[in-house]
Amino acid sequence: MRQARTVATGRRPDKYAVKPKLERWRVWFVLTCLMGLFAALLGRSLYLQAWNEGFLQDQGDARYRRTLKLEPNRGMITDRNGEPLAISTPVQSIWLSPRSMQVLPVGQSRPKDWKQTDDDEQVPVSVDEIKKIASLLAISPDELQAKINATRKNKQGEDVKSDFLWVKRHISPADAKRVLALNVPGVYSQTEYRRYYPAGEVMAHVVGFTNLDGKGQEGFELTKDSMLAGKAGSRTVIRDRRGYIVEDVSTIVPPQEGQTLQLSIDRRIQYLAYRELKNAVDNSQAAGGAIVVLDARTGEVLAMANAPSYNPNSRAKIDPAHKRNRALTDLYEPGSTMKAVTVAMALNAGKVTPTTVIQTGGGTMTIGPATIRDDHAVGAATVEHIIQKSSNVGAAKMALMMEREQMSDFMHAVGFGEKLNTGFPGESPGRVRPWKTWRPIEQATMAYGYGVSVSVMQMARAYQMFAGNGEVHPVTFTKLVAPAPGKQVVSAETAAQVRKMLEMVTLPGGTATRAQVVGYRVGGKTGTAKKLVNGVYSDTARVGSFVGLAPISNPRLIVAVMIDEPSFALRYGGLVAAPVFSNVVAGSLRLLGVPPDAPTTNILLPGNGVEDVKEDA
């Protein structure tokens, strides 16, 4: 009866019912997979947001964020009177983005109704537009097009174009305006600063110059680069794909302007010195020359010039050989200008007095196989007369009165063989050999300037000891408020005695009558030294020099002149260098307002009964 009911209702008996069943291991497998995926996603998110956040942030910033460098204005360089020697002027530089430009085929131009949209990855630029840009900037159209189309390999090894290309730098704002007026997409201008040197070649070796990026390359532009350059500022902005600035995203950090550098140089005296030096080098057909003018009281450099020179405003045309600062870097054997130092040494040591008579015989002196000769035999002569006539034998005999170590110590005390520490690049310390290696002949020849190498600046500094009370002050290119402490080298009495002898050299009977100055008493010493050529002293190549003081009654200036390889007829220091001293001193003393200390009739030049004494040592 139960069976019949079941059939009637159409249901199966319970024992035939299908019961769904899921194996337990499958459940755990699926659950484990889901949890593993969740853990991987969680770990990845932690890695990206915590450990690798900086990298991702940098990648994002690299695509839209830019930190612009705000260039500071480079500091000005002035002379001691505030006259500008180096200034920075704003200029424009043209640049473009090759990656965002597509050069169209020849003859095809950009549609007139074309407008740049945010979807444009590249903007079309016609060949004619490139030619117009090149013409305005005076560059080659083919070269410009080649740079735009040039590619390079990126880190993935793909060929890509550059994002940035300088087209032409440091042009006038008017020229940049004409280029931008072409409305060529992807061409921009940027404000920069160009260094300008008002004194040009006159001040080139003092001031130096900078490169296109405003970095000092020579002179005080290099030495004081950090002081002059200042500190760059910054501005962080967001840029779109086309390079346009959308907004600033941080506070602008303003640049710190460079400081002004005031030198001890007097621009007026510098001009005089360069003009007279250049004339002397040109007229004597010399290989070059150098001149230094020092303030005798403080050691400040009032002028330093070299010939040949160069124009720092035309960097592309500078001859590398003309950049040599001969006054500080080139060494030469000073010849007879060293005799004043030898006499001062002997006087200060008490070996001689100004009236001590020294026997020079017939003008020759033999030491071993070598013979020292005078150009003019003076016989038995006083120390004063020996300096006036420039006797090699007399100077050698005074040097041999000294102990070798004593003589070496004196030479180092006046600055020979020592750096001047002016801070100027390439400064040479000169050369004085260790005294223990000196032989008698070497000690004798150093008395008149052979066997020792100096710079023009070192000779000028050494003569400081004759200008005042026997002190030598440090040489400086910076304007001083008060003189730096000096070093006592000789006594004030010795300094006065040598000053008198130096004045005798410029009077009739001396070797430097052409150094005389109208209205002023002056003094100095000539030098005519043979040059070493391939290790042998040349019979024709000479270095003519003169170092002197003015006015002798109260020295204000020290002037050292060196002419390298003048023509043989003008090889004497009294002929080629002394006139330079005279002309520079005459103009400089008047510019400085130094009162005359002699009548205007004090000039007695060779001729009309005045002896013309020449020396070749």
TrEMBL record:
Catalytically driven reaction(s): Preferential cleavage: (Ac)2-L-Lys-D-Ala-|-D-Ala. Also transpeptidation of peptidyl-alanyl moieties that are N-acyl substituents of D-alanine
Parts of the chain that traverse the membrane: 25-47
Domain Penicillin-binding protein dimerisation stretches: 70-248
GO biological process: cell wall organization; division septum assembly; FtsZ-dependent cytokinesis; peptidoglycan biosynthetic process; proteolysis; regulation of cell shape
GO CC terms, sorted: plasma membrane
Keyword Hydrolase recorded: yes
Broadest EC class assigned to this enzyme: hydrolase
PANTHER family on file: PEPTIDOGLYCAN D,D-TRANSPEPTIDASE, PEPTIDOGLYCAN D,D-TRANSPEPTIDASE FTSI
Purpose: Catalyzes cross-linking of the peptidoglycan cell wall at the division septum.
Entries under HAMAP family matching the protein: FtsI_transpept
Protein name: Peptidoglycan D,D-transpeptidase FtsI
